[in-house]
């Protein structure tokens, strides 16, 4: 998934490890964050990643410090990681697909999915990317994501409208919902956490999750377990974060729910791996 990937636990020993790391870092947890990319984060602390970072820092007994940088600047998310996390300016990124090869990832702390978004009154029969009704509709999608690849496989991408939210600085994911509200798009396909916080302002819209599938041969992934990420050499911090995730999973899930993030999988916490169903 391109959505910022596009694209995841506490005994006494682990608690001690977390405390030791916080002490070694001067009781400061440096978090990489975008200053203006709601619903993920902003300087005012209104995003769900802000709330997750606050929960984690408090559990570790550490002072939270942000390193602000535009995630949608030149070079995109990989360059953002290189300039900030890999360079040592900060220590952790709050959302990264579990098992991502670019960095070390923690155990997952939530699982979410790409979704169809459309008006409730339309009552479209959309179950997956092969739903016949989908070909009759004006489709919008977030560019450079698994959805774009899925549309390409079906010869549908040229007739659809791409939204470059994940690549354009200052562009709000809310614009995808507004396009559905205005009727310029019948159905939008995007990452649910990108629009969850805004959905409360659009009570006439509904969402349907896209299932992972092998329908076209190769596995198509639309749901992902999400983790925190640290530098590849920072195993100590990963262990400390895993301890917090295990101890604070209920709190983290509550934070996500409060921010409109819908969770998918066998459970609503860490450890659910949708890939296992393929």
Structure description:
- This protein is an alpha/beta fold and 278 residues long.
- The protein has 2 domains: 12-110 and 224-277, D-Maltodextrin-Binding Protein, domain 2, CATH 3.40.190; 113-209, D-Maltodextrin-Binding Protein, domain 2 (3-Layer(aba) Sandwich), CATH 3.40.190.
- The chain is 29% helix and 21% strand.
- It contains 7 helices and 12 strands.
- Strands 1, 4, 5, 6, 7, 8, 9, 10, 11 and 12 form a 10-stranded mixed β-sheet that branches. A two-stranded antiparallel sheet has the order 2-3.
- β2 and β3 (41-42) form a beta hairpin.
- The relative contact order is 0.22.
Order of helices and strands: HEEEHEHEEEEHEHEHEEH
Could you say what the CATH architecture of the largest domain is? 3-Layer(aba) Sandwich
| Molecular shape | globular
Helix proportion:
25-40%
Quantity of strands, as a count: 12
Oligomer: single chain
What's the structural domain tally? 2
Structural class: alpha/beta
By CATH, the topology of the largest domain is: D-Maltodextrin-Binding Protein, domain 2
Please report the first level of CATH classification, the CATH class of the largest domain.
Alpha Beta
Biggest β-sheet description = 10 strands, mixed
End-to-end distance: 17 Å
Low-confidence stretches: 6-25, 266-278
What is the H level of CATH, i.e. the homologous superfamily of the largest domain?
A: Periplasmic binding protein-like II
| CA-atom Rg in angstroms | 19 Å
Q: Number of helical runs?
A: 7
Mean pLDDT: 88
User: What is the beta-strand fraction?
Assistant: 15-25%
């Amino acid at each position: 998934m391109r959505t910022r990937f596009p694209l995841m636990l506490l005994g006494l020993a682990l608690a001690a490890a977390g405390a030791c790391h916080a002490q070694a870092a001067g009781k400061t947890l440096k978090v990489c964050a975008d200053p203006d990319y709601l619903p993920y984060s902003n300087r005012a602390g209104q995003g769900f990643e802000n709330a997750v970072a606050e929960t984690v820092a408090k559990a570790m007994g550490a002072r939270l410090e942000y390193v602000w940088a535009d995630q949608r600047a030149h070079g995109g998310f990989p360059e953002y990681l290189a300039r900030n996390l890999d360079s040592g300016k900060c220590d952790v990124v709050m959302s990264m697909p579990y098992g991502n090869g670019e960095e070390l990832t923690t155990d997952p702390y939530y699982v979410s999915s790409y979704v169809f978004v459309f008006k409730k009154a339309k009552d479209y029969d959309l179950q997956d990317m092969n739903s016949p009704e989908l070909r009759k509709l004006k489709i919008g999608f977030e560019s450079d994501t698994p959805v774009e690849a899925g549309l390409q496989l079906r010869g549908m991408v040229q007739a659809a409208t791409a939204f470059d939210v994940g690549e354009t600085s200052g562009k709000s994911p809310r614009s995808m919902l507004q396009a559905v509200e205005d009727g310029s798009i019948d159905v939008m396909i995007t990452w649910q956490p990108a629009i969850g916080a805004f959905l409360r302002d659009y009570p006439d819209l509904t969402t349907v999750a896209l299932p992972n599938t092998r329908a076209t041969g190769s596995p198509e992934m639309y749901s992902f377990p999400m983790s925190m990420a640290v530098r590849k050499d920072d195993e100590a911090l990963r262990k400390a974060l895993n301890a917090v995730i295990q101890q604070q999973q209920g709190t983290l899930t509550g934070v996500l729910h409060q921010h409109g993030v819908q969770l998918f999988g066998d459970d609503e916490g860490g450890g659910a791996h949708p890939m296992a169903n393929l």
